[in-house]
Design brief:
- The protein starts with a helix and ends with a helix.
- Helix 3 (67-84) runs antiparallel to helix 6 (115-130).
- The chain has helices at 3-16, 22-60, 67-84, 94-101, 106-112, 115-130, 138-156, 161-180, 183-195, 200-221, 241-265, 270-278, 280-297, 307-315, 324-337, 345-362, 368-384, 387-398, 404-421, 426-441.
- It has 2 domains: 27-221, Orthogonal Bundle (Clc chloride channel); 238-441, Clc chloride channel, CATH 1.10.3080.
- The longest helix is centred in the first third of the chain and has 39 residues, at 22-60.
- It is mainly α.
- The chain is globular, with a radius of gyration of 23 Å.
């Protein structure tokens, strides 16, 4: 073998090394670009959602009874568009992403994570916020992020399904990280909720995507926290009674909420279920009327994501009605059952803040700010049954590491209580129902 042949041979061998392979670098750069894109989509979605709520508030200013027209009409239009223009866009988006991670048929994955559904998720969630629905944007952001990374994987022509799956997982995690500005929560959510594992072959992709999404968010939006900065602490002593009470209240209420949604996913009973299946748009309008009634009863506090109400309670700048968590929970159930797209993360945190404020009134010796955080993590853990994710999200969203142990204790206790009411985690159960429905259509 002459000198030129040996040189060509060594160059070919070097090109196969992971650090020098052009194919590997093309995939790396593509993944990095995809993570930045997910962050940009999440930030744009967040700002559009805030603007939609501002427009809704302006529309109702001085005309509170307008909601009885706006909500039914908006819910009906959203469901009609979902069924006719964006089929498959209904619901949170997280169960669909989990289902996609467990599918092996490429055509089915392409349908769930298609650009059409991603666009529909954004547009129809904004429509829901424009008409007062009690929904969040975080679940839809997860599916949008997963869709963006899935399309990237198809463009890169990844040869194996596990490589494509790692990109979908990374997209969902980056969506959570960018939506909440909580990078650690994005990683934990991917482990605990989306994949229920952390395989070595996907860990690097997920971590890289979350880091780049977090950097993009910091560069464009700054190092903000959604619920402000909490410096509350909970010393050992009588105040820890709040841990038990928030865990019990949050676990029971969160478990009941999840059980209601899982039961509804199986279909409403008897003639009611048949009627809803025959007239879904009319049923959505009735759900809109229910949301309007609860909004009037709460003085407008139950409309929208609930961020403003939760932040005000965390910062101690307002005192919500004792009925707020009940009405907000019911408004969220009505919004979800209507069939419109939208998530439950933000409304759940708002309900939890209301529960925490209620418990704080029972234990005057405990710092109210600390108890509110316990209520948030207790109810959120009861709903999603992902205690570590719940703890990390609340901790990061309030920039409060002092409460880590009380938050984790409350979250774990609430998880156990919730399991007594709803035996299967909400998102996992909805994902299984979604997979079953997909198999029937196939």
């Amino acid at each position: 073998m002459n000198m030129s042949s040996r040189l060509r041979y060594r160059m070919r061998r070097a090109a196969r090394l992971p650090l020098l392979s052009p194919r590997q670098w093309r995939r790396r750069v593509g993944t990095w670009a995809g993570a930045v894109l997910v962050a940009l989509l999440a930030l744009g979605f967040a700002r559009a959602a805030d603007r939609a709520q501002d427009v809704f508030g302006d529309a109702l200013a001085g005309r509170p009874l307008l909601i009885f027209v706006l909500a039914p009409a908006g819910f009906a239009l959203s469901v009609w568009l979902t069924r006719r223009v964006f089929p498959g866009a209904q619901g949170s988006g997280i169960p669909q992403t989990i289902a996609a991670l467990h599918m092996t048929e490429q055509a089915a994955i392409d349908r769930i994570l298609s650009p059409r559904i991603a666009v529909g998720k954004i547009v129809l969630t904004l429509l829901g916020l424009l008409c007062g629905a009690s929904i969040g944007r975080e679940g839809p952001t997860v599916q949008v992020g997963a869709s963006a990374m899935h399309l990237l994987g198809r463009a890169l022509k990844l040869p194996r399904l596990d490589l494509q799956r790692s990109l979908v997982l990374a997209g969902g995690a980056a969506g959570v990280a960018a939506a909440f500005n909580t990078p650690l929560a994005g990683i934990v959510f991917a482990i605990e909720e989306l994949s229920h594992s952390f395989e070595a072959r996907t860990s690097g992709t997920v971590l890289t995507a979350v880091i780049l999404a977090g950097i993009t968010t910091l560069a464009l939006a700054g190092n903000y926290t959604y619920f402000g900065f909490s410096r509350a602490e909970l010393d050992l002593g009588a105040g820890w009674l709040a841990v038990v009470l928030c865990a019990l209240a949050g676990g029971l209420a969160g478990g009941a909420f999840s059980a209601a949604l899982v039961g509804a996913a199986r279909g409403l009973p008897w003639a009611v279920g048949r009627w809803v299946g025959r007239y879904p748009v009319v049923f959505a309008a009735l759900c809109g009327l229910a949301v309007a009634a609860m909004g009037i009863a709460s003085g407008g506090a139950t409309y929208g994501t609930g961020y403003a109400q939760a932040r005000a309670v965390v910062e101690g700048s307002t005192h919500m009605s004792p009925w707020f968590p009940v009405l907000k929970l019911l408004a969220t159930v009505a919004s979800y059952l209507s069939g419109i797209p939208g998530g439950i993360f933000a409304p759940s945190l708002a309900v939890g803040a209301g529960i925490g404020q209620w418990v704080a009134g029972l234990i005057p010796s405990a710092p109210s700010g600390a108890v509110v955080l316990l209520g948030m993590v207790g109810y959120f853990s009861g709903v999603v049954q992902a205690p570590i994710t719940a703890t990390v999200i609340v901790m990061e969203m309030t920039d409060n590491q002092r409460m880590t142990i009380p938050l984790l204790a409350t979250s774990l206790l609430a998880f156990g209580v919730s399991r007594l009411v709803c035996r299967r985690p909400l998102y996992g159960a909805l994902a299984r129902r979604f997979l079953l429905a997909m198999s029937r259509k196939a």
